[in-house]
Amino acid sequence: MRMRAPIRLAIASGRAALWLCALALLAPDTALYAAQSDPPATPVVLDRVVAVVNKRAILASDVDDEIRLSVLDPNLVGQGTLTRQGALEQLISRALIEQQIREQDLQSIAPSQDEVNARLEEIRKQLPACVRQNCATDAGWKAFLAAHGLAPERVESYLSYRLEILGFIEQRFRQGIQISPQQVESYYRDVLLPQYAPGETVPPLDQVAPRIQEILLEKQVNVLFDAWLTNLREQGDVEVLDPSLESAAAQNSTPVANPVANTGASR
After folding, report:
1. Which structural domains are found in the chain, ordered by start?
2. 65-77: per-residue pLDDT in tens?
3. What pTM was estimated for this model as a whole?
């Protein structure tokens, strides 16, 4: 009879242990339930759609990216920072062009890696902003990219994309347009040279002549291109969703900054 008390105590202790185990197993679920029952925190917007071009979305991050990359465009030198409205207009125009390229399946205009590398080397050696930071050296180029929040891979894809667009424009619009040596010399003397500060190394004319010829060619092509692009926008479905950008887009049937003049690339 005396043995029963310890047996009951052992049984009671065993039951208590089982209850404690059960509570321990339930505790995480209970905490999870409590966490799930709490009111949700204010959502953080990571990105948002600011425009739609024929069912293709343009994000706010795309606009920010376009502004950062605009430092690589020699045509914007001396014009100040690209505005968000201007960046959006460029993105809309290039989206329309890209859709035309895909629809026509123009694979032949895709640039080779050698073309991209050549354009990258040209920018590092000739772009005034790059010359000031000695981008021809690896250290200078790395510092330049860091200062503008750019990654080397993003710069390469950006140049490749613009080369592709330029290839399409060349096929469609540039035939028959000629640029004279006198026009090249005038641009070099009146436009390019003033971009360099006194004492800075200025590239010789024969070195930059191909790029100058491309810029002048782009300007003449703009007349034809603008008419084509305006018609493309009128026939397409372009909707600006950001109220802060809508007014600028509505007032301009053609791009604020024409993507032809801002390809920043020569073939």
Report:
1. 49-251 (1.10.4030.10)
2. 999 999 998 777 6
3. 0.62
